[in-house]
Amino acid sequence: MFAVLRAPSQVLFGAGMAEAAGPVAATHGRRVLLITDPVIASTPGFGTVEVSLRAAGLDVAVSTDAEVDVPSAAVDAAVALGRETQPDAIVAVGGGSVIDLAKVTALLLAHGGAPSDYYAVNSVPGPVLPLIALPTTAGTGSEATPVAVITDPASDMKIGVASSHLIPRHAICDPRLTLGAPPVVTAHSGIDALSHAIEGYMAAEADDPDAELVLGRPQVGKNAISDSLALTAAGHIAANLERAVQDGDDLEARTGMLYGSLLAGIAFGNSGVSTAHALQFAVGAATHTSHGLGTGLLLPYVMEFNRPARPDDLAELARVMRSPGSAVDHVHALGQRIGLPGSLADIGIERQELRGMAEASFKFKRLVDNNPRPLDEDALEAILDAAWHGDPARLSRERSDDRGGAEGMSALTSQSVRS
Ligand SMILES: [Fe+2]
C-alpha cells in the first residue's frame, strides 16, 4: 500500500467556525494581514472574521486587492502592504483567487523575489508566513492544497506555483461564509470540486513509489488516503450540488458542498488532477469562461476516455454518487441540471480550433502525465471533439468503430492501456 497525506496542520469545520479566526491567528503574533476582494469585504461573513481578529487584540491591516486569476498588480499591492505592516500571519477570506493571492503573498513576504522565481516545482525553500484560509466558495479546495494559480505577467497566461510549503497552516471552513455565493458561482465552483474528487481518484498510479518520489513532488498520484477522501468528497458533492444551486440559503446543502470541496482539495492536493484541468487551460484562454465551467463541462468526456483503463474506479464512483447507471452519465446529467453549457460549440468554439487547443493542453505535462490512460495530442483532440458535439458516448462509439477496422482515431487504438 502507498499513502501520502500533506494537509493543513489544523482544520476547523462547521457553521459558526469563522469566529475562531481571531484566537487562531493570535497564536502566531500580534499583527495580521487580512486579504479579501472588494465584494467579499462587504459581506457579513467577512465582518465576522474581522470582528473576531480585532476582539483577539490583533492589529489588522486589510487588503481588498484580490482579483479573479490573481493578476500581478494584486500581488504587488498585497505584498507592498505586507512589507509596510510586517504581519505575523496572513488571513484569507474568499474564493480560490483570494486564497491563492494570500499564498503567494505569504511566500514573497517570507522569501522575497518575484512569483516567477518559484514556478519550478518545489522551488520554495522553506516555510512561508503562517496562513489561515477561510473559503467563501465550495470550491477550489485551495484552503487545503499546495498550489496557487496566478497570472504570469510576462505571458498573461495562468500558471501554478506548487510546493507543500504553500498549504495553509489552518483551514477554517464555515459553511455560513458560502451562503452568499450566487447560483452560477455555486454551480461552477461546485462542479470544479467534483472534478477535483474524480480526477484525484482517477489519477495515475506510481509504478514503484519511493521516498524520492514523495519528496520530489508535492502531488504524487493516486494513493490510499487520497482515494478515501476523494470518494467521500464525490458522494457529498453529488448529493448536494444541485440543491445548493437551487437554494443558496440551504445550509445543509452548503455544508455538504463545503465538506466535499475540502476533502476533494486534500485528495487532489496529494494525488494531483489531470486532463480536464489541462484542457480547461486552453478552453478558458480561448473563451474567457470560468475555470469550473471548463473543468465541469470536460469532466465526463475525460472519464469516458479513461473508461478502458479504470472500469472499476468508475463503478466505485457510480456507487458513492448513488447513480443507478454509469458515473459518466451521472456527472454529465448533473452538469446539465446545474446549467453547464451542452457542448464546446455552445461556448463559441469552432471545430477547427480543437487541434490547437489539444496541442496547447498537451504542454501541461504535469497534468497530462497524471492521466490513468496514456495520452497524446490526437487523444486530447478526440476528447475535445466529443465535448464539441456534446456527446460523451461518441468516444466509446469511435472506439468500437476502431475495433472494426474503421479509419481514424489512431491515437485511441495505438496507445497501450494501463489498467
Ligand atoms: Fe479545479
From TrEMBL:
Region (Disordered): 391-419
Keywords: NAD, Oxidoreductase
Keyword NAD annotated: yes
UniProt-listed PROSITE patterns: ADH_IRON_1
Keyword NAD recorded: yes
Entry superkingdom: Bacteria
CDD domains: Fe-ADH-like (cd08191)
Xref: Pfam families: ADH_Fe_C, Fe-ADH
Chain ranges of the Fe-containing alcohol dehydrogenase-like C-terminal domain: 221-388
SUPFAM superfamilies according to UniProt: Dehydroquinate synthase-like
Biased composition (Basic and acidic residues): 391-405
Residue ranges annotated for the Alcohol dehydrogenase iron-type/glycerol dehydrogenase GldA domain, each copy included: 8-175
Family: Belongs to the iron-containing alcohol dehydrogenase family.
Protein name: Iron-containing alcohol dehydrogenase
